Amino acid sequence: MFEGEGKLLNLEVLQLWELPELESIGISFPCLQTLKIWNCPKMKQIEEILECTKGNLKTLWIAGDISLKTLYTSEFINLRTLKVESCLTLSNVSSSSLPPANIENMDIRYCEKLQTLFADSNSADYELRCLKKLHLEDLPMLESIGAALPPLEDLFVMDCEGLKI
């Protein structure tokens, strides 16, 4: 996708907006701290980008028309903020056995097929110990978070009829 790849090695913020033909990136960003993707309908996976961040990724924001069923399968130790909005094909946020250990803010809304946040984790054994803010809205299929919640500073849950907290 990019010419002059060497110049992008120090890139910390990548925003991909309304790229209807984009299927993949094909380049690594080892210093990437923030990734925002909005309305890239042919993108079916973002794992290649996430795996190359070498644990530096702090903010992941995905919204709009994108063909993902899961966001990631790896463990992200430094991820602090996760925002997912209007991803109509998403069924879970992660299929990793461990949810992000240092996540502080999660805002997930308008994902009609989302069933669980963390598919392969055992909620009885794992707590999102750093989580401070959780916003879940209009997730009609959501049944579980997949991890225990600590006491939160801010909890907002609306139109998530199947969720038991």
Provide the β-strand percentage band: 25-35%
In round numbers, the mean pLDDT is: 84
How many β-strand stretches? 10
Across the major sheet, the strand order is 1-2-3-5-7-9-10
Order of helices and strands: EEHEEEEEEEE
Radius of gyration: 15 Å
Unreliable runs: none
Largest sheet: 7 strands, parallel
| Broad structural category | mainly beta
Shape: globular
Cα distance spanning the termini: 43 Å
Q: What is the domain tally?
A: 1
Helix content: under 10%
* Tally of helical segments: 1
Oligomerization? single chain
Protein name: NB-ARC domains-containing protein
Keywords: Plant defense
Pfam families: LRR_RPS2 (PF23247)
InterPro entries: At4g27190-like_LRR (IPR057135), LRR_dom_sf (IPR032675), Plant_NBS-LRR (IPR050905)
Outline of the structure:
This protein is 3% helix and 30% strand. The chain is mainly β and 165 residues long. The model has no long low-confidence stretch (mean pLDDT 84).
Structural summary, described in words:
By secondary structure, the protein is mainly beta. The protein has one domain (10-158). The chain is 3% helix and 30% strand. It has 1 helix and 10 strands; from the N terminus they run ββαββββββββ. It has one helix at 47-51; strands spanning 13-17, 34-40, 59-66, 70-72, 81-85, 92-94, 105-109, 116-118, 133-137, 154-158. The strands form 2 sheets. A 7-stranded parallel β-sheet has the order 1-2-3-5-7-9-10, with no helix packed on it. A 3-stranded parallel β-sheet has the order 4-6-8, with no helix packed on it. Helix 1 links the parallel strand 2 (34-40) and strand 3 (59-66). It is globular. The N and C termini lie far apart (43 Å). The mean pLDDT is 84.
